[in-house]
Amino acid sequence: MSWKVGCCGLVLLVIGVMAQKLPTRDEGLFQMQIRDNSQFHDSSVMPDGAEVSGYLFRDTPKRYYFVVEEDNTPLLVTVTPCDAPLEWRLTLQELPEDRSGEGSGEPEPLEEQKQQITVNEGTELFTYKGNDVESFISTSSPSGLYQLEIISTEKDSNFKIYSTTTPESDQPYPELPYDPRVDVTTLGRTTVTLAWKPTPTGSLMGQPIHYCVVINKEHNFKSLCAAEAKMNLDDAFMVVPKPGLDFSPFDFAHFGFVPSENDFNKDRSLYTNRALSNKISRGYIPKPKVADIQKICIGNKNIFTVTDLKPDTQYYFDVFAMNTGTNMSTAYVGTFARTKEEPKQKTLELKDGKVTDVFIKRKGSKFLRFAPVSSHQRVTLFVHACLDAVQVQVRRDGKLVLSQNVEGVRQFQLRGKPKAKYLIRLRGSRKGASTLKVLASTRAGGKQPFPALPEDTRIKAFDKLRTCSSVTVAWLGTQERNKYCIYKREVSESYSEEHRRREQNQCAGPESRRKSEKVLCKYFFSANLQKAVTTEIITGLETGKSYLLDVYVVGHSGHSVKYQSKLVKTRKYC
């Protein structure tokens, strides 16, 4: 089949089909046909003015043909490698002088056409090897038979080709600006802002243009086709072109069909001769791992901020201008950048037997280091989480020895080692900031710095014992004799349990309270835990008022822990 374009036509010719002269191209029909990819799939036709996608098996060349009928015809041929470097060569064969007459329909014998291609090497016009998007362009090319031969020597690969005899008027690829570089304008720990100059194809020529940004951690891409081939590696893995003259049964292995062991030992030349005498059994080949790559199309904006990146990581950024009318794209000169590091955590040194106050931001972390001076058999670690629960991790000389969530006061016993060093990581709550008190000690025995607590640290109020001026409350104790102090504070009618929860700080001791809020302090304990409970009547309250009650238990070293606050209300009528 051959197609003619205007007065300077590009005639398309497929080897294996009789060549003949056809009338001028029907533009409407042509536009409909080029939108149908099946028209050109695995075909040796190079259509005039349309981009064609193709597939190559490794070391198996493909050839495309077309005829330029008249001298001095402009010609542009562009080859876009997708996922492997390609070698391609463009050659010119002169048309035979004894061609069939105009429109006579007398076909040239097929064997003679093949002989002209295979015997006569023709004139080499252009060769290229690499993975760049490369073009051959001529403002005045001679008439003749043109052959484009493409081969991939590294691996099976996708590619695109485009040819036209009217390059000035077609301009399917967006034009790059005078400065085609992508610039990094802002760099953060998890964000990078990119900017580039707009393509004249959109701003001056009014063509429908939008931009796509590709982000990955490996390298820059020279075409959108290459980036998409990387992204669609899983899907492309099982895409099989229709078998044709250049199809080799050996390549069935690429698509998950593995020849038997004996077959692999046979010479590959058997397949080159198109002979398939071996049995082929279906097997499983693991899919290749897809690189961490993302494509984001952003419309016609030429400034874009990439978010959700990892700190201290190098990324490669590419921008592609795409003509949405032709679905063809042009690559800007990509760039790369390393995101900023996270601020280095300052490590606090713990002193043996000393309490350290620690503040952690919401979702933040803090590191503590404990390096005992003398040899030790064990380390006692106290952690007092003042607000919400925190996660505690301890590593001894790099080995993880403890990982726990802590609420309230917890004590841990860690086995010691001579000259061992301990790294303690505290991870805060998602709800809000965290405050802690931490103590590490190698001293055996002695009194604990923090007071012992019962399992239940709630304050119980007896509703039936409420009066207009008093309330009766109770709380649990332990088998250890400790000092308990109770405080009251009048609150408004609108004060709720949510307010109480937000103000709950177990590390705030009695020293933070006003003297007027103190009710009393007393000591108590019980050898029998079942009887370790005390009650107290709080008097001197006003009628119909709300009060917040707090109980503090004070340890021997002066450190205190607050029980859960209790909201109570006196009766209005008595």
Automatic annotation (TrEMBL):
Broad class of the protein's primary localization: secreted
Signal peptide: 1-19
Location within or outside the cell: Secreted
Keywords recorded for this protein, A-Z: Glycoprotein, Neurogenesis, Repeat, Secreted, Signal
Residues that span the membrane, as ranges: none
InterPro entries attached to this UniProt entry: FN3_dom (IPR003961), FN3_sf (IPR036116), Ig-like_fold (IPR013783), NDNF (IPR019326), NDNF_C (IPR045805), NDNF_Fn(III)_1 (IPR055271), NDNF_N (IPR056225)
GO biological process: extracellular matrix organization; nervous system development
MF terms (GO), sorted A to Z: heparin binding
Taxonomy, superkingdom: Eukaryota
Cellular-component GO terms for this entry: extracellular region
Record domain Fibronectin type-III: where: 174-329, 451-560
Function, in words: Secretory protein that plays a role in various cellular processes. Acts as a chemorepellent acting on gonadotropin-releasing hormone (GnRH) expressing neurons regulating their migration to the hypothalamus. Also promotes neuron migration, growth and survival as well as neurite outgrowth and is involved in the development of the olfactory system. May also act through the regulation of growth factors activity and downstream signaling. Also regulates extracellular matrix assembly and cell adhesiveness.
PANTHER family attached to this UniProt entry: NEURON-DERIVED NEUROTROPHIC FACTOR, PROTEIN NDNF
Protein name (record): Protein NDNF
